[in-house]
Protein: 5-formyltetrahydrofolate cyclo-ligase
Organism: Pseudoalteromonas rubra
Amino acid sequence: MTTSRKEIRNIIRKLRNSLTEEQQKEAEQNLTINFSQHVKLPKNARIGVYLENDGELRTNLLIQTLWSKGMDLYLPVIHPFSGVTLLFQQYEKNSPMRQNRYAILEPELNCSHICPLAQLDYLLLPLVAFDDAGNRLGMGGGYYDRTLARYYREQWQQPKLIGLAHDCQKVAALPTEAWDVPLPTIITPQQCYQW
Ligand SMILES: Nc1ncnc2c1ncn2[C@@H]1O[C@H](COP(=O)(O)OP(=O)(O)O)[C@@H](O)[C@H]1O
Ligand SMILES: [Mg+2]
């Protein structure tokens, strides 16, 4: 019997939420080192990032490092009209923030600070599980799949997608659906997977 997407979500979410504070900190530091070794960023790159939630790999240190290198960072904001897709809004140290419906922090909506998806150079995505082929399982909302549907269908060159995850979030094979957008690169604290 194959394990369902829902069951895999539950198992892996429990696993990552059971990591200790020490393990989380070490993972965050190793991710930051591993990321710098594997991703050669152009000057002033525009990079979509995320803020950790639900035991995800923390990004605070990576964000600080990217800012210190002069990168322009953007955070996902749930689209105020569609409610099911993401916009990417500039994120600076002093950006006013609010909690969205999942209690995840996002910048207060300011339309003049939105970057169209195609103008991001990189997009770093959170995920619940990934497999040997680069398939991605999210939290179940389909936000990134919907936001990236046209990008994937039309094979845009930009942004480059990079999934970030703990090493324990890898499984052999995920059951996939037609709308799932796979990831060409996934970076963990220990590995860099490319497909
Ligand atoms: N491109 C899309 N267009 C319309 N609905 C979508 C699209 N992608 C995903 N969805 C919807 O989002 C729901 C959740 O997607 P799923 O892939 O299971 O979540 P996640 O990627 O967060 O793990 C699906 O049941 C589907 O109805
Ligand atoms: Mg999906």
User: Anything to note?
Assistant: The domain at 5-194 is CATH 3.40.50.10420 (Rossmann fold). The chain has a mean pLDDT of 97.
